Amino acid sequence: MNKKRLYWFCQIGGWLFLALAQSLYLKLSDALNFETATSQFLLLFFGILLSHLYRNFIVKYGWLRIKIILLIPRVIIASILLAVVADYAQYGVEWLLNIEGDKHLNTITIVTNIVNLIPFFFSWSLIYFLFHYIENYKKAEIENLKWEASINEIELNKLKSQLNPHFMFNAMNSIRALVDENPSKSKDAITQLSNILRNTLQMGKNKVIPFEEEMKIVNDYLALEAIRYEERLKAIVKIHPESASFNVPPLMIQTLVENGIKHGISKLVNGGVLEIQTSVENDTLIIKIKNSGQLKEKHDSDSGFGIKNTKQRLQLLYGNSATLNINNNDSSSVVTELTIPKKLTSYEGNIN
């Protein structure tokens, strides 16, 4: 039901209910006759007519934008005036029809009728303004949500634009180290890098991508790093079958894998092992990346660009529903645990 239909439904229905309620009261009091029934009909007619004219006045003179403290006296005065006009309009028609024509000769009767009508018009005003204040509040909330979503979208794109050059820089450094040392392997490394770049360009506009697509990039990245580190890097991948049903932010797992190699395995003379393991619990994907090395107490795990970027992206996409923790697993290894829910929080239903 649109606003116009809703207005007329409430307008006619409200005054009709009032007229019927008063008619029922008169019936139960054995006071319902032609004259009193006509009065109730006139109340219905003039109530609808005058309140509708009052509504047009409110819209024309911008009362919906006035502060409540300034609006209250206006509404009280308007309710009194409407009650006066309704009473004398009703009297005029009754006088023409010769129905209870002498009731307005009594001042007390006039005042009583007007006082009885004031609450009706005041209640009408209260309902009308309350409806619009609630509607405007909802509109404001929607606008705020849209604004916040827009800001989050800008921030997320900014983070993604920062991440791609960061990844490319590290990958190119890996290839540069191979050019003089092993030209043949450097060619293979360039092929691996081209696969990664092609995939990242294709998914550049996506907020999240299927888990399997992310793992293709991770596998290519591990193959690229295996050429560089040779026997110093051993990779183990254990994927839970249900992981394929999840979406993950692009390059997020790759970033954590890169972090484990860069800050852990690369600093060890004999290299080490990097293990990726996933599990699914309560519609949540749990990704554990275990790498050889140690997280030193003086080292701030959030200081690295990749980790800070990852946490910001998780917050923008999932709010507090996703987590990222990095801790020492034992005296020789570090575990990074990432949990991702099945549904987005900030962008649910809006995946490009």
Could you please describe the fold and organization of this structure?
The protein has 352 residues and is of the alpha+beta class. The chain has two domains: 3-143, no CATH class; 182-341, Heat Shock Protein 90 (2-Layer Sandwich), CATH 3.30.565.10. Helix content is 62%, strand content 13%. It is built from eight helices and seven strands, in the order αααααβαββαββαββ. The protein has helices at residues 3-28, 34-60, 68-96, 107-179, 183-202, 211-229, 252-263, 305-318; strands spanning 209-210, 233-238, 247-248, 272-281, 284-292, 323-330, 333-341. The protein starts with a helix and ends in an 11-residue tail after the last strand.
Summarize the structure.
With 352 residues, this protein is an alpha+beta fold.
Principal-axes geometry comes out as rod-shaped
Question: Can you write the helix and strand succession as a string?
Answer: HHHHHEHEEHEEHEE
Question: C-alpha Rg, in Å?
Answer: 37 Å
CATH topology of the largest domain: Heat Shock Protein 90
How many strand elements?
7
Number of helices: 8
DSSP strand content: 5-15%
**CATH H-level superfamily title of the largest domain:** Histidine kinase-like ATPase, C-terminal domain
Oligomeric state of this protein: single chain
Uncertain parts:
298-303, 347-352
CATH class of the largest domain: Alpha Beta
Measure the end-to-end span.
32 Å
Strand order of the largest sheet: 2-4-5-7-6
Strand count, sense and closure of the main sheet? Answer: 5 strands, mixed
Helix content class: 55-70%
> Kindly state the mean pLDDT as a whole number?
82
Number of domains: 2
